[in-house]
Structures are given as structure tokens and as C-alpha cells.
Amino acid sequence: MDSKEPVWRISQADIVHNTAFSLFPYYNRSLVLIDGAGLGLTHVDQPPHTLKKPLDTAHFSGKYETLPTLLDGSVRVLNIMAQARDCQVKLTTVSTPTTIHVDCTYLALFVVSGEPSLDRLGESELVSFSAENFVQIYQPCSGDYRFSGGSVIVIQIS
Predict the structure, then answer these.
(1) Which of 43, 76, 79, 157 supports an S-S bond with 35, CB 3.0-4.6 Å?
(2) 14 and 74 assigned to the same domain
């Protein structure tokens, strides 16, 4: 592996054809369905996944061939890739008011819908986001955060 390769990356993609994914042999991948009627994923030497509704998630190794099957038209996904040897990724999907504990090096938020707010408990600052914003929060991150007002994908990378 080239030392210039990113340790992790997050992207949003539209999948419009049943075309094999690119291989990323040193990365673990997580795919979250954001919009669309669903997506099946078939992997060589790994169990298949079916993402039927928004916020459904699949975790798989990028070293195996992965073939998508669109269930009823194109879909939009959030793609999180992290080097298997250097990173751990924890995803939490939030669609109702809830509090989660965060303990990571990087905290990223992707707003799926609504205009959610984030409140770090014990602090007076309330942060609001617009739909489909992508926000990286300060690093390192630790503490309890309250989410309300929309659907959010919380990405913790350590």
C-alpha cells in the first residue's frame, strides 16, 4: 500500500447501473442507503447484503469483488472507507431524538433529512444543520451528544 493513500474517506454516490464496485484491498467499507428503492450487494466469499430503506447499512471488505443489484431504480448511498489496519469505524443512524456517547479521533455527521440539531451535553452551544449537509466536528471527540429534529448518520473514526 502506498503511504500516500488516505487512511479514511467518506463520499456520497449515485448508483445507476448494476456495475461491479472498484476493489480496495486494504480497506473496510460501509455503505448507507440514503435515497432510493433499495440495493442488493453480492460479495465474493462474503455474505450478501440487502439495503431496503433509507439508513440501512452494509459493512464489507473492499478486497472482495462486490456486485450491486438495483431493486427498483437508482439509489444514493454514503460510502465510508477506512484502512483495515489503521482505523475503526462506528456508524450510528439517528432518526428520532436520542443521546449517544461519542469517543473517537474524528466525528463526522451526514444529514439525511430535516434540519437536525446537535447539543453536546454539559455545554450551552446548540448546533443546527440543513438537509444534506456534511459536517466534520472537532477532533478528538468525546462526550455525550443529543440529536433531534431530523435523520443523521453519525460516523466515528478511531
Answers:
(1) 76
(2) yes
Query: Considering 36, 59, 83, which residue would you say is the last residue of a domain?
Result: 83
3-state SS assignment for residue 23: coil
Residue linked to cell 439525511: 112
In 36-123, the DSSP E strands lie at: 39-43, 46-51, 57-61, 66-70, 75-83, 89-94, 98-104, 106-120
List the Cα angle 139/140/142 in 5-degree steps. Answer: 120
Residue 76 shares a structural domain with residue 135? no
Q: Which residues have CB under 8 Å from 22's CB, separation 6+? A: none
Is the residue at 105 inside a domain? yes
What are the pLDDT digits (tens) for 121-142?
A: 777 666 777 666 677 776 778 8
Q: With contact defined as beta carbons under 8 Å apart, do 15 and 66 qualify?
A: no
